[in-house]
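Kindly review this record before class:
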Amino acid sequence: MTLQDKVTIITGASAGIGQEIARRLAKEQTRLVLAARSEDKLQALSEELSATGCQTLVVRTDVSDPNDLSELVDKTIAHFGRIDILVNNAGVESFRHFEQTETEDILQTIETNLTGSIMLARFVIPQMLKQKAGVIINMASTAGKHCPAFASVYGATKAGLIGFTQGLRGEYLSEGISATAICPGFTTSGGVYERIVSATGKKTSVALGGTSTAAVANAVVKAIRNGPPELIVNWPPVRPAIVLKEIFPRLGEMLATAVSKKFVKRAADAAAKGEPGT
């Protein structure tokens, strides 16, 4: 699939993975709709990408607000006339002791990570059905494959995104609409990982590993072109451990917990103390 001139909506485009995806897709000469809550950051990115010849549209969007999502789709169609690709990237992290997690934080995590992606896909798919083609990329996580301790709400939203992606594929693949779940590990070149390291002074174990924003962006381009059900982006590879967990659930759980629990607990402890960056 050629990406040139394809109209692509990217949520959470103002920083981190979303920003890297935008830069990567700009190299493919796609037309980009940049969506996030921070309009000034979106404008700065738009100016950067426009200087390379990329056509962009900035739409300030809170993905937890269905009215914003509907307006995002309407403005995209009014400006570009179509929607070829949706990258549901917006998300918030939540690494906390569950009993200390406020109701507001639980609801915000669910609305941003899961409900917003579902609703935006709902608004986009009718246009894709008219075109008889489209691609939906849902930014999940390895936490959706096995939810680590101290990340139960976050992991639940990412597992939900994986299930949602599977359902979309079953319903719409025959209509020309593909859906892929991208599952990164800890992104070590920005975002929550660096904030946890800054707050705790500790990095992940070699066994847990991680990835980079560039690797995730490359995976998104690969998924758009090839349409796989799922791509896991992490080094070292974690799929063998996921398969082991499916075959031997207790053993897989023990291994996954041993690898991840200490690092994520540090993040939860730092959040409980109100340390900066968590």
Observations:
- The first strand starts at residue 7 and ends at 11.
- The domain at 7-193+210-237 is CATH 3.40.50.720 (Rossmann fold).
- The mean pLDDT is 91.
